[in-house]
Task: structure prediction
Amino acid sequence: MEISKETVFDEYENYSYTLDYYSPESDLEEDMHLGILHWISLMLYVLAFVLGIPGNAIVIWFMGFKWKKTVSTLWFLNLAIADFIFVLFLPLYVSYVALSFHWPFGLWLCKANSFIALLNMFSSVFFLTVISLDHYFRLIHPVLSHRHRTLKNSLVVAVFVWLLASLLGGPNLYFRDTLEVNNHIICYNNFQDPDLTLMRHHVLTWVKFLFGYLFPLLTMSFCYLCLIFKVKKRNIPMSSKQFWTILCVVIAFMVCWTPYHLFSIWELTMYHNSSFQHVLQGGLPLSTGLAFLNSCLNPILYVLISKKFQTHFRASTAEILKHSLWEVSCHGTASEQIRSAETKSLSSLETAQLSTLFPEISVESPCEPNNKSF
Result:
C-alpha cells in the first residue's frame, strides 16, 4: 500500500530520522545544500570502507593467526572483528545514500544493517574502554593486574562485552521497519504505539549517549589522565610516542562520535519544533559518516603505529615475498619441468663427479628449500 508524504509527516510521532535521512518536506535532488552534505557523507562512508577493510583484516590476521595469544592481542583482535563486521555492511549504507535514501534491500537487511551498526558502536566503544582500563591497571597497579590479568579472565570480559553490546543494540531488531512513500522505500524506527513513541525514542537515544559515549569517554579520560600524572610522579618510563598515541586516541574518539550523539539528542526536539529540520537532514548523515570513520582509525591508532606491529609486519611480509619468489623461480612452466626431468640423471652424475673431485664445494640446487631461511 502506498502512503503519501503528508501522511508520514502528520504521523511524525511514529517516525525517527535517526539513520533514515528521509524527509517528506524536502526534495534532495533540488536542494543543493543538502545534496552536497549528503555526497560528503557518502565519501566518508566509502573512505571508512576502503581503509577499514584492509586495516582491520591485517589486524585480525596477525592478532588471530600469527601472534601469540595474550591479553593485549585479545582486546585488539575483538576490536578489529567488531570494526571489520561493520565495514562489511557499509556498502548498504553507501547504496542507501547514493539512491537518495531509497532502501531496496528488504525488511530483514534493514533490521540487520541497523543492528550491526549499533553492535559495532557499543562493542568498539566498550573494547576501547577496556583497553584504557587495562593500560591503567597494568602500569599503576601491577600487583593487582598480575593477579587477575589472565587470558581466561580476559575471555570472560570479551564475551560479556559482546553480550552487553548485543543487548543494547537489540531494540533495532524489533523497531526497525521499512515504509514505502511514493515508490520510495525508507528504513526507519517504527515505534508502533503512538502513546509510547516519544518515551521509547528518548530512552533509546539516551541509552546510546550514556553507554555508547559519555561513560566510556569519562572512563578513558580518567584512566589516561591518571596514567599520565602517575607516570610522571613515579618516574615510570613512558615514551613521548606512547603519550601522543594516547592523546590521539581520546581526541579521535571525541571528534568521531561527539557530533553524532549531539545530533541524535537534537533530533528529539523535532517532536515539538520542526524549524531545524533541514539542519538535521544534513547533519545526521554527515555526523554518522564521521562516526563510521572511527572503525578505520582504530587499527591505525592502536596497532599499526606501534613499533612491535611494524616490525612483525615487515618480517612477515618479507617472509611471504621470499617464499612467493622461491615458488615462482622453482616451479617454472610445464616445458621447463619436462626438460628438467629429462636432464635429471645427467645433472646428478655431474654433481657426483664434482663432489668427488672437489669435496670442499657443496653443490646445492637453488630450488631446494633451506630450512634455515624459513
